[in-house]
Structure formats: C-alpha cells, structure tokens
Amino acid sequence: MNKIALLLGILCFCTPTYVYAKRTAPKKVASVAHEGIKYQVVHYKTDNGEQNGGYVEAIAEKSGKKLWGSLLYLVEYDKSLEKDVQDCFITSLDLNKQKTRLEVTSEAGNLYYLNLKTLKVIHVMRR
C-alpha cells in the first residue's frame, strides 16, 4: 500500500504544470438579429492571428454572407504565461433600444458599444 501511495505522489509531482493551466471553453453567446442582419460573437477568430475573443461579425440572414467583422478590444498577453488562460471572451451581446449599436460585455467585466453604422467602438466601463 505504501508503494502505491509513493508512486501516486511521484506522478502528481511529475505531471507537467501546463495541464492545470488549460481553461474551459467559453460559453456560447446568443446572436441578435435586426432588419435581416444577424450579429454574432466569434470566440475563436483564426484569421486575425493575434487573439481569441473580442470579435463580432454581421451576417446577412438570407444569404449567409459575412458583411463585416470587428475586433472590439485587444488582449495584452504576458509571454511568460500560457496564452489560452489569458484569452478574454465576450460573455454577452445585445442591441440597444434604438437598434443603433451593439452592447458587448467581456469576461473582464468591460462594456463596449459598437456603432452599427460607423463600426466605431466605445469602451464604456471597466469592472
């Protein structure tokens, strides 16, 4: 019995620490639609090559064609840490009452407004 406990203890200390650094996948954020355009969150944006999270896009509902995409915020990565645990994903997406801008909240508690005509981003609040 002592040999088994010793072996388990050794295995625990020899396990690479990066296994513990992995984060869970971000939660799905419901898309919103208005006047034939669907606005959706893209958690894993492969073509920007810089970061995961912070990206929304507009899709024409009838054709499914991407109209535009916008990166709302940049994540400053610490090179000494695992990149995936530093990703900051969008947690909510909504249209304002006038349907003129998207209201987006990040995991860090930041609120952003995206003007749907100009695609200008305004950082409103930080937790």
Detail the topology: elements first, then pairings.
Layout: H1 2-14, H2 18-21, E1 32-34, E2 37-42, E3 55-60, E4 66-71, E5 90-95, E6 101-106, E7 111-115, E8 121-125
Antiparallel strand pairs: 1-2, 2-3, 3-4, 5-6, 6-7, 7-8
What's the short version?
With 127 residues, the chain is mainly beta.
How would you describe the overall organization of this protein?
The chain has 127 residues and is mostly beta strands. The protein has a single domain (24-125), classed as Thrombin, subunit H (Beta Barrel). The protein is 13% helix and 34% strand. It has two helices and eight strands, in the order H-H-E-E-E-E-E-E-E-E. The strands form two sheets. It has a four-stranded antiparallel β-sheet, with no helix packed on it. Strands 5-6-7-8 form a four-stranded antiparallel β-sheet, with no helix packed on it. The longest helix has 13 residues, at 2-14. The termini are far apart. The model has no long low-confidence stretch (mean pLDDT 85).
Radius of gyration: 20 Å
Task: Look at the helices and sheets and give the structural class.
Answer: mainly beta
Task: Give the SSE string.
Answer: HHEEEEEEEE
Mean pLDDT: 85
* Through-space gap between termini: 51 Å
Describe the largest sheet: 4 strands, antiparallel
Write the CATH fold name: Thrombin, subunit H
- Taken as a percent bin, the fraction of beta residues is 25-35%
Q: Figure out the total of helices.
A: 2
Global shape: elongated
Tell me the number of strands.
8
